[in-house]
Amino acid sequence: MSLQNPPVNSLSLEFLTDICISVEKLEMDKTCRGLIITSSLPKVFSAGLDIMEMYGKSPERCGEFWRAVQEMWLKLYGSNMVTIAAINGSSPAGGCLMSMTCDYRIMADNPRYSIGLNETQLGIVAPFWFKDTMTNTVGHRTTELSLQLGQMYNPAEALKIGLVDQLVPEDQVSHYSHTNHDQVTTPDRSKSMMRKPTIDKLTSKREADIQNFVSFITKDSIQKSIGMYLEMLKKRKR
Ligand SMILES: CC/C=C\CC/C=C/CC(=O)SCCNC(=O)CCNC(=O)[C@H](O)C(C)(C)COP(=O)(O)OP(=O)(O)OC[C@H]1O[C@@H](n2cnc3c(N)ncnc32)[C@H](O)[C@@H]1OP(=O)(O)O
């Protein structure tokens, strides 16, 4: 599955819906042995959630958006397929979350790329299931530090903390993803054993999590922080 939503593969409601439909189709296809997620765009795997979906939108629309974010995570983290993230560019926040849902992460060894949960930089607290996914990936202490600082890691740092599993030359990300994938034929039952408690936690609190997101994101102070972050993103370009 090659992500293609220019300019930065930000995860809008529409794009998230497309991703969910694609994953669902693959999941039902008996001939499909697994899933490699990568990006069709240069330099960016995914810029994470589309910030414009969280800025100046109605509570109803925010709720619909958040349900789609949850759905994407539930589908990928609970997938019965062998999943590999072929991270061929930067992968902040929701992009990092998407990578962490996979069984294995291969990243392009380019020091200009970065990956991590940077929500704190937007004045946002990462939701509990983002935190849980990271804890399951890199452990409690690293997650605590990482979330408090909104830390982004270059590929070498990401490898060191276990946020990615393998670094490869940029032009060989696809090759190594397929090679690794071919070595695993079916997902082991241990995958669902390891992930079920984390998945059940969100499933049982799904509506409350949506309410929490909507009331948090529509607060004036949070809207102001997001507005300032958007300004910073645009200024950084100039
Ligand atoms: C209770 C819980 C409450 C809340 C939880 C909410 C959780 C949120 C998780 C998230 O995922 S929030 C999104 C966080 N994402 C980011 O901070 C990424 C910001 N973007 C970047 O760092 C860079 O754009 C990049 C490294 C991904 C790519 O850099 P580059 O190739 O240099 O592109 P530009 O920076 O020039 O960006 C091009 C264009 O795209 C716009 N843009 C970038 N990221 C986003 C985004 N996530 N959503 C919407 N739009 C984005 C950027 O502003 C530029 O727009 P122009 O109109 O100026 O062209």
Automatic annotation (TrEMBL):
GO biological process: fatty acid beta-oxidation
Pfam families the record matches: ECH_1
Entry EC number(s): 5.3.3.8
SUPFAM superfamilies for the chain: ClpP/crotonase
PROSITE patterns: ENOYL_COA_HYDRATASE (PS00166)
Keyword terms of this UniProt record: Acetylation, Fatty acid metabolism, Isomerase, Lipid metabolism, Mitochondrion, Transit peptide
Catalytic EC class: isomerase
Biased composition (Polar residues): 176-187
Annotated Gene Ontology cellular component terms: mitochondrial matrix
Domain of life of the organism encoding this protein: Eukaryota
Ranges where the record places region Disordered: 176-195
Localization annotation: Mitochondrion matrix
UniProt GO MF annotations: delta(3)-delta(2)-enoyl-CoA isomerase activity
Catalytic activity: (3Z)-hexenoyl-CoA = (2E)-hexenoyl-CoA; (3Z)-decenoyl-CoA = (2E)-decenoyl-CoA; a (3E)-enoyl-CoA = a 4-saturated (2E)-enoyl-CoA; (3Z)-octenoyl-CoA = (2E)-octenoyl-CoA
Pathway membership: Lipid metabolism; fatty acid beta-oxidation
Database matches in PANTHER family: ENOYL-COA DELTA ISOMERASE 1, MITOCHONDRIAL, ENOYL-COA HYDRATASE-RELATED
Family: Belongs to the enoyl-CoA hydratase/isomerase family.
Its biological purpose: Key enzyme of fatty acid beta-oxidation. Able to isomerize both 3-cis (3Z) and 3-trans (3E) double bonds into the 2-trans (2E) form in a range of enoyl-CoA species, with a preference for (3Z)-enoyl-CoAs over (3E)-enoyl-CoAs. The catalytic efficiency of this enzyme is not affected by the fatty acyl chain length.
Subunit and interaction comment: Homotrimer.
Name of protein: Enoyl-CoA delta isomerase 1, mitochondrial
